[in-house]
């Protein structure tokens, strides 16, 4: 089983490298990804330290940043809603 999973990983890596080289994606997507990560962290930071909702604190960790990264600012609302219902 371990050999099969390693084979799938290697084939996937080779296909990703082929796509990156053949389409000449460049590094513009890394800049955009970095900008989105910074904006997601900034959105969570603003909610935490704005003082509007003092009883709610959303931790800055990879899971929360990834949620906001994928969902955008509605992801911050989702995290707030989850935090308020779990308290």
Textual characterization of the structure:
The chain has helices spanning 2-23, 28-49, 62-71, 73-86. The chain is mainly alpha-helical and 87 residues long. The protein has a domain at 27-86. It is elongated, with a radius of gyration of 18 Å.
Residue fraction in strands:
under 5%
Q: In terms of quaternary structure, what is this?
A: single chain
- DSSP helical segment count: 4
Query: What helical percentage do the residues reach?
Result: over 70%
Give the mean pLDDT: 86
The strand count comes to: 0
Question: Short summary of the structure?
Answer:
The protein is mainly alpha-helical and 87 residues long.
Comma- or semicolon-separated keywords:
single chain, 87 residues, mainly alpha, 4 helices, elongated
Layout of SSEs?
Layout: H1 2-23, H2 28-49, H3 62-71, H4 73-86
């Amino acid at each position: 089983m371990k050999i099969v999973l390693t084979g799938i990983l290697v084939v996937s890596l080779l296909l990703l490298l082929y796509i990156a080289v053949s389409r000449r994606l460049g590094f513009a997507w890394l800049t955009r990804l970095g900008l989105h990560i910074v904006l997601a962290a900034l959105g969570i930071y603003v909610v935490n330290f704005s003082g509007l909702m003092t009883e709610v604190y959303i931790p800055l960790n990879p899971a929360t940043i990834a949620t906001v990264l994928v969902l955008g600012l509605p992801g911050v609302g989702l995290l707030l809603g989850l935090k308020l219902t779990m308290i």
